[in-house]
Amino acid sequence: MSDTPKFKTFLTSKKIDPRRVLVASYRLERLTRDDRAIKRSKGTKVEGADAATKETRKPHSGRPVTPRSLDAALTGKTLSGPTKQRILRAVNALLEAKKQEKVELKTLF
């Protein structure tokens, strides 16, 4: 087996610039007004009629992929689970823009 990490070979085979992964992640993980409203409603006690309309969606994390974590992925160092998921979401968004098939986490790492 070669020393090149699976993630790096995948990016080169699909012709994806790693800097585009950073930009896509920032765009995807950015908190919106709706996300802030969801977080605010989870922090307060909900009673009565409002309890039935409680929000069930999950907000975005607000934490995009950092250059440091992307460099760790490109060199084959260990990454946390949430960081891998953020990278996966960003890569899938780029693949969707290129009208290609989405990939699974096992394909990248």
Overview of the structural elements:
The protein has 109 residues and is mainly alpha-helical. 57% of the residues lie in helices and 0% in strands. Helix 2 packs across helix 5. The longest helix is centred in the last third of the chain and has 17 residues. The two termini are 14 Å apart.
Describe the structure concisely.
With about 110 residues, the protein is mostly helical. It has helices spanning about 5-15, 20-30, 35-45, 65-75, 80-95, 105-109. The mean pLDDT is about 90.
How large, in whole angstroms, is the Cα Rg? 17 Å
Give the overall form: elongated
Briefly note the structural class of the backbone: mainly alpha
- Biggest beta sheet attributes: none
Q: Round the mean pLDDT to the nearest integer and report it.
A: 88
Distance N terminus to C terminus?
14 Å
Number of strands: 0
Strand composition percent = under 5%
Number of helices: 6
Return residue spans where pLDDT drops below 50 for at least 5 consecutive residues.
none
Task: State the helical fraction.
Answer: 55-70%
Topology as a string of helices (H) and strands (E): HHHHHH
